[in-house]
Amino acid sequence: MKSFFKNVLANIVAIVILCFVFFFFFIIMIAVSSMSGEKSVDVKKNSVLTINLKTSIIDSPTEEQQSIFNIKDKNQNILIYDAVEAIHKAKEDDNIKGISIETDHISAGTTQIDDLRNAIEDFKKSGKFVYAYGNAVSQASYYLGSVADQYYLNPSGGIELKGLATEVTFFKDFAEKYGIGIEVIRHGKFKSAVEPFLRNDISPENQEQLSTLLNDIWGNTHLKWQLQEK
Q: How do residues 4-32 score in pLDDT, each as one tens digit?
């Protein structure tokens, strides 16, 4: 009986020590992360704010990788709020004379690009210049870069303009072929999230709502292009 209690006590002590070690390690990681956080930037005269979109534009820190071991990957993402704030501050900073947009390899959604574009539009009210440059310019890159006063393209580069489209993948036949049972409860014709498991083609209701969405996005971006050209 004594050996039993000794083993139980030893296991409890081991668990407590292990928890303490993990907690101590976690505190160290937080301290290291905070030390490598924001640093004050000394902006020199006649500086240019460069918007380099090789980094990913994200909406929230929760979209970043959650592993505590990915410390060096932290600077690969930038919050859309921070990007917009930087543009707003550059508008008021007399040391910054303009913005240079590098539009290659853009990694941002349509809404995020809209936010950046609107911020740059507001920046231009200060009278400062905005230039854009690209090598291989995608449709999203061109949309953002079109806000610039001048858009420079590498003589060997190109621009890809192809409109907007969406695709729906259907799994009904696949499930039936391999004996996979699918139970769905749906109310309303426009509840299309489960349609891929119920149909082999797109429903008129889903086609209507997807077309409305795409036309709204395209109409909004096309209008801004026209206004910029004027």
A: 666 767 778 778 787 777 777 777 777 66
Alpha-carbon 22 to chain mean position? 32
> 62 — phi, psi (to 5°)?
-65, -15
Tokens of residue 121, six digits: 């539009």
For the chain, report the end-to-end CA distance as a whole number of angstroms: 90
> How far is it, in rounded angstroms, from Cα 129 to Cα 58?
26
pTM: 0.61
Count CB neighbours of 2 within 10 A. Answer: 6
CA distance linking residue 204 with residue 59, whole number of Å: 33
Q: What is the pLDDT of residues 109-152, one digit of tens each?
A: 888 888 999 999 999 999 999 999 989 888 888 888 889 999 99
